Structure formats: structure tokens, C-alpha cells
Amino acid sequence: MSAMNHPTAIIAEDEAVLRDELKSCLGQLWPQLRIEASVSNGLEALLAIDRRVPDVAFLDIEMPGLNGLAVAQQIQRRSHVVFVTAYDAYAVAAFDHGAIDYVLKPYDMTRLAQTVARVRERLDSAPPSLEHLLRELAGARPAREYLRWINASQGQEVQIITVEEICYFKAESKYTLVITADGESLIRRPLKELVEQLDPTQFWQVHRSVIVNANAIAGVTRDFRGHFHLKLKQRQEKLPVSDSHEHLFRSM
After folding, report:
1. Which CATH superfamily is 149-248 part of?
2. Cα dihedral angle (73, 74, 78, 79), rounded to 10 degrees?
3. Stated pTM of the model
């Protein structure tokens, strides 16, 4: 933990306007707080927390890739957590538990001031375990439907491909390639849109141009520069892993 007269924080919120607004509000209410990183998704949040080890992490619950609950699961006991949410059901459960705080969107300065006061009081103690609370919040989460199939062009035909068949997606100019064990198809949907519609427990973005089906991964190798590459069960090519996503595979 940093010295309490100069506490540090990261903000993880996928909407840029709300991210900047929260940073501005915190600057007014808690000028001593240093925002070490301001990121747009859960994977970037984990990377920032690994590097910075902030005193406080403001985590939006609904983020692409890893959501705020998944990030909190991995950083508990390392940083104090404040959830950012638009759902009252989350907020009530978090507040009643007492070991964590929350910020409701849209932001209210009076409520945010209360949150800041409570967090500042907790900085003198170690971040708590969040296991019980995270189970409660996961149960309160609104059900979400993820993509189950893709309509893709292959030559003059349009194919219906279930997500289980897909090995990976690859950005290709203005289009996206859908790669299965048997071939490639084309869709007019950007990778950024896809990552928000796919189940993050099954599909991982490992590069700015690649989303891989975790069930299609056979193993991980390193090249002579130390960079990770993924071997696939049903394809011969290897997929590069960018530096910002290598933490997903360091334990393999």
C-alpha cells in the first residue's frame, strides 16, 4: 500500500464519458488521490492493478471481457474495491455487506462524497476477502444472453455457425474472419462489437485483432523474444498474444 497521505487508485469503466466524469468528481472530492490508470475493460484493469497495486480500484460491474466482479475476485485482499453500477440490486447488496462500497450511475456528488469518506476510513486496514459478497452480487446480476451462432458468408452461401464450432475471430480490414476447424467465413461485424456479445468465460481477446475460443486452445509456447503464441487443437497456425494479454497465460 502507498502512503495514506498520497493514496492511489485506478478507474475501470467502459464508457469514456463516465470514466472521465468519475475521475473529475474524485479530483474535486479527494484531491490527494492519485489516479494511476483509467481503463476501459477488465483485462486492462487487471494489468494496471498488477503494475500499480493501487490502494483503491473503482470497477464498473458491466465491462467487456472480464466484468468488474471477475476483476474483484482476482484482486481481493490486494486493493480496496468500489463498484460502479447502474443497478440498484447490486448496490443494496454491497452496501448491506459493509465491507465494500459502490457508486451509482449517473453519479451524484453527495453520494460519491459518502463513498470517499468510507473508503478513506478503510485505508488504514487491509483489503478484506470478498468471496461471500461476490457470490451475492453474482446472483443479483441481471441475466445476460450471449451470442449462440453467427451468420457468415462463405463464397455465395450464408452459413449458420454455432459459437462452439468457432476456433477464433480475426479482424480483417473492415470485416471479421470467423475461423472454424474446417475453414474461414466472413462477417460484417467489427471485433470490438463481437467482444461485447460473446461469453467472456469462453472467448478471450488475446490481441487487438484476435478473439480466441478458450476451448480451442491446445497449449502455449514462447518465441525467442519471450512472446506468447497459442497452439490450437484443430488448426495448424499459431496465434500471437499481445503484451497486454500475456497475464492470461503466465500460469500455464
Report:
1. LytTr DNA-binding domain (2.40.50.1020)
2. -60
3. 0.59
